């Protein structure tokens, strides 16, 4: 019998000041899924993720976390359940990598629970998993963009939440580190049963790694489901206005989008 997912959105209207981005938007995030949201620029992907993370209050509708309005839950309680890697993050001046990653443990601290050996271990493991352990004593502001991105991801991992939301996590990363990061996300999903929700620009990466894909355009969901079931040439043209072929990826068997060749102009 189907169960209600831990994270879902019901009839959302999302807006910035007077500009409405989405209206009557409802989605379910399957539990223990690696859900990826794709769509063209300005279609509402990151806006939806911000609403799911409680950093943007809907004009109408409700985001439900474990059956309750997320806006009504205590902030620290939400932070122990749901982590967020935002699109842009600013570190305090002079903070070291180890200190920034350690801030991911804040939701687990309290009057009766101070810093512990477990906190120390989780921070070390999070830095090792993202390849920033050797940067522990360096200040964040002296790092490259790609290094900083991996440090922020390490902090999100250190928060150790069952739900993790990532807004364009591959930004600033070269292709090697993009694949390493997405492999890490896949392991968190497969081995630890975490629910991940990511916004990605690369449709082929999304189709390769996602267990559940949400395709958006103009603030609406056009399709949702396993990539192998929903990614077709017709859907890609509807969502991205891109003529293409969809074939099986020779490495993974997942959908691979091949844009149609430009027709040469006769001279």
From TrEMBL:
Keywords carried by this UniProt record: ATP-binding, Cell membrane, Ion transport, Iron, Iron transport, Membrane, Nucleotide-binding, Transport
Main location: membrane
An annotated Gene Ontology molecular function: ATP binding
GO cellular component, one term: plasma membrane
GO biological process terms held by the UniProt record: iron ion transport
Topology term for the membrane: Peripheral membrane protein
Secretion signal, residue range per the UniProt entry: none
Matches recorded under Gene3D superfamilies: P-loop containing nucleotide triphosphate hydrolases (3.40.50.300)
Top-level division of the source organism's lineage: Bacteria
Residue ranges constituting the ABC transporter domain according to the UniProt record: 7-243
Xref: Pfam families: ABC_tran
Entry's localization field: Cell membrane
CDD domains to which the protein is assigned, alphabetical: ABC_Iron-Siderophores_B12_Hemin
Protein name: Iron complex transport system ATP-binding protein
Organism, as annotated: Kitasatospora viridis
């Amino acid at each position: 019998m189907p169960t209600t997912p831990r994270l879902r959105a019901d009839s959302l209207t999302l807006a910035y000041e007077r500009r409405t981005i989405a209206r009557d938007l409802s989605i379910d995030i399957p539990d223990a899924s690696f859900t990826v949201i794709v769509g063209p620029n300005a279609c509402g992907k990151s806006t939806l993720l911000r609403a799911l993370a409680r950093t943007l209050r809907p004009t109408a509708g409700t985001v439900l976390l474990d059956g309750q309005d997320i806006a009504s839950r205590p902030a620290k309680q939400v932070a122990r359940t749901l982590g967020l890697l935002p699109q842009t993050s600013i570190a305090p001046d002079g903070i070291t990598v180890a200190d920034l990653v350690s801030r991911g443990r804040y939701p687990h601290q309290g009057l009766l629970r101070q810093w512990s050996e477990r906190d120390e271990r989780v921070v070390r493991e999070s830095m090792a998993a993202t390849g920033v352990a050797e940067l522990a004593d360096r200040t964040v502001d002296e790092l490259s963009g790609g290094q900083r991105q991996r440090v922020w991801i390490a902090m999100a991992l250190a928060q150790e939440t069952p739900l993790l939301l990532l807004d364009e996590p591959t930004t600033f990363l070269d292709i090697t580190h993009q694949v390493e990061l997405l492999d890490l996300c896949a392991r968190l999903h497969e081995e630890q049963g975490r629910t991940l929700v990511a916004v990605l620009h690369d449709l082929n990466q999304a189709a390769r790694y996602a267990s559940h894909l949400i395709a958006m355009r103009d603030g609406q969901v056009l399709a949702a489901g396993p990539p192998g079931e929903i990614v077709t040439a017709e859907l890609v043209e509807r969502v991205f206005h891109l003529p293409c072929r969809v074939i099986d990826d020779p490495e993974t068997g997942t959908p691979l989008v091949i844009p149609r060749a430009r027709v040469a102009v006769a001279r």
